[in-house]
Specification:
mainly alpha, elongated, 7 helices, 174 residues
Length: 174
């Protein structure tokens, strides 16, 4: 079965690789500018002035738009997860390639759990716009705080491991 899939996919290896790399770039970079230049400054201002209604309104506005903008990232990640195994098959790769095994472990062990949580807090039960529309401002404030803590905990590892995965894929050092 794998041999048949490899025969079918091998002629499209470069096209699959293009789609995979494009999705990786969208996934890695789509929210980085918004996070660094909008969310962080607004949240710093809010932490300095937690009672300032204008800052809170700006914080809420930025966070809701960030949730919406994360849609690009959250469309790209499943494409990465789909095209990665297709490339694995089309390219005839195996887990004997240490760089590939490490890359897969990082994706499954680090990115997959983070992205599952991120989908929830951005689009599902933690979506701030939908919570605000219910009128439950206590829950809304909790969702804002939870999302900010999520960013504080995950941003460092995501940056480090994203660069590590890209490095592994490009250089294949081990």
């Amino acid at each position: 079965m794998i041999g048949l899939l490899q025969d079918l996919l091998a002629p499209f290896y470069l096209q699959l690789k293009f789609i995979h790399l494009l999705a990786v770039m969208v996934w890695v970079w789509s929210t980085s500018v918004a996070y660094a230049y909008y969310l962080v400054p607004v949240f710093k201002a809010w932490r300095r002035n937690p009672g300032d209604e204008g800052v809170i309104e700006l914080r809420n506005w930025v966070m809701e738009r960030f949730d919406h903008g994360a849609s690009y990232e959250h469309i790209a990640f499943p494409i990465v997860l789909l095209t990665g195994p297709l490339l694995y098959i089309a390219g005839g790769w195996s887990t004997s390639a240490a760089w590939l095994t490490l890359k897969i472990l990082i994706i499954v062990g680090v990115f997959l759990p983070i992205e599952i949580c991120d989908y929830y807090i951005s689009h599902l039960g933690g979506n701030k716009r939908r919570i605000r529309e219910t009128g439950d401002m206590v829950r809304y404030e909790q969702a804002i705080h939870r999302h900010w803590w999520f960013f504080l905990v995950t941003s460092g590892p995501v940056m480090v491991f994203a660069m590590a995965v890209i490095y592994l894929a490009v250089t294949k050092p081990i």
